[in-house]
Amino acid sequence: MISRMDIKSEDVIIDEIDFTTMPGTNTAVLGSKFVKVPLRNAYQAEGPWEFSLTNHSRNYLDLKRTYLVFTFDITDTAGNFVQMDSKLLETSMSYAPINNIAGSIIKTVTLHINSQLVYGNSTNHAYKSYFENLLNYSQDIKDSTLSAAGFYHDTAVEEFTSLGYQKRCLMVFNPKPVQVATNISIDLMNQSRLLLNSCKATLTVYPNTSDFLIEGHNLGTKKLKLNIRDVYALVHEYELTDGLSNELEAALIEHKLIQYPMISTQVRSFYIGPSRLDAPANTLFTSKMPRRIFLGLVSAEAYNGSQKTSPFNFKPYGLKNVHIDYCGKTVPGRPLELDFENNKFIEAFIQMQEAIGHSRNNSTCNSINTQMFKEKGFTIYGFELSPVALDNSLFEMVVQTNVSIRLDFKEKTPENGLYCVVVAEFDALMGLDTLRNPILDATAH
C-alpha cells in the first residue's frame, strides 16, 4: 500500500525532471564595475583620510562591496628597515603587524550622506573588525579570503611560535611595501540594499598609532613605526536601466521614504583599576536592548598601545563570574561561575559559541577550541539577549532599558589595570527621503 505521510503534504517534482522551469532573466542591471576612489583631501600620515564615495553619481552604490586599500611598511623611527632572523627563533628579535591589520589600522570612521552624519563610532573600530572576523569565520577563511586583510589564524596570541604570528612576520620580512584591503565594517555597509543614486557619501577615516599596530618579540628598547604609504577606496557601482530607475524614483515620491533595515554594532570599553576584585558599577547602554553582546578583558598596556603586546590578547584575569543586567533581568539566568585554573569554564565557552550560532550546525565554525578559550588569548564571552538574535530577517520588539555588565574576580586585577571591551548589536533602521536626506531609525507612516 502506498500513501502520503500526511494529507497536507503537497505534490512536488524534483529538479532533475523539471523541464518547464527556467532561471529568471536580468532586466534591471545594465552593468556593474569597481571604481577606485582616491583621497579627497591632501594625504597626512596621521589622518584624517577623506573619500567621496559617490559624488552624486547616477549609479547605485553597492555598499557591502566597499573596500579600503592600504600600502604600508614597518621601519625604525629613523625610517630604516630592520632585518629579522629568517629562522624566527625564540632568542631572536621579530616583529609583525597585529592581526587583521587592514581593519586594525582604522581607529575611527565616520560616514556622511549629503553632509549629514549617519555613522560615527568610538575609537574602537579595530576591536569591532577583529571580533567580526575572529568569531564568524573558520580557519580556512581566515587563512585564505581574510589574508587580504592581513588576518592569519593564531593558535595562541602573543606567542612567537604561533603560525599566524610567523605568517605576519613574513609579510614584512623584506624591505618592500605590503598591500592589504578590508571591507568597511560599518552599519550601512553591512546590509545588502544599494544606496540610491544622487547621494553624496563621504567617508572619513582616522588611523591608530604604531604602538597599537605593531606586535614584537624580543624588541628590547627598539621602537618601530608602521608607515602608511598609500590609501584609497574601492567602490562597486550598479548601472540600472532607465525604466527601473524611474520606477524607483516614483516609488520614493509615493512612499516618501526608502528604508534600510540593518544591524547596528556599537563598541564600548571601560577601565578596571588595579587591585580590584570587581568591576566598577557601569551602565554601558541606555537606549534599546541589544540583540547580543560579546566582551573580553585585555591589559591596559596593550589596549593603549604597546609594541611588546597584542591588543587582542583576551585573558581570564581570575574572573570568577560575569553577567549582564537589563530590565531587572540577568543574562544568563544565573551569573556564569568560572574557575579557569580548575577547568571550570565550559559553560562560558558554550555560551560564546551559542551566541554566534556555530554550536547549532556542522557547516561553520570559528576554529576556537576550549584550550584556546581557556589560556591562549581567546577568552571572549558571548550573551544572547534576544530569543532570535541570529535571525537578521526579524526585528525584535523595542525595549527601552539600561544595560550593565557585572564582573567579579577571585584575585586582584593586575598592577596597570584592565580594559573590558564590549561589542553589542542592535536593530536599526535608516531612511532616505525624496531629497536624499538620511533619517535614522526612520519609520514609514
CA(first)-CA(last) distance: 57 Å
Secondary-structure element order, N to C: EEEEHEEHHHEEHEEHEEHEEHHEEEE
Question: How many structural domains can be distinguished in the coordinates?
Answer: 1
Work out the helix count.
Answer: 9
Detail the poorly predicted runs.
none
Keywords:
445 residues, alpha+beta, ribonucleoside-diphosphate reductase activity, thioredoxin disulfide as acceptor, five-stranded antiparallel beta sheet
Architecture overview:
Helix content is 16%, strand content 34%. The strands form 5 sheets. Strands 11, 12, 15, 17 and 18 form a 5-stranded antiparallel sheet that branches. It has a 4-stranded antiparallel sheet with strand order 1-10-3-7. The protein has one domain (30-440). It is an alpha+beta fold and 445 residues long. The chain has 9 helices and 18 strands. GO terms for molecular function: ribonucleoside-diphosphate reductase activity, thioredoxin disulfide as acceptor. InterPro entries: RNR_small_fam.
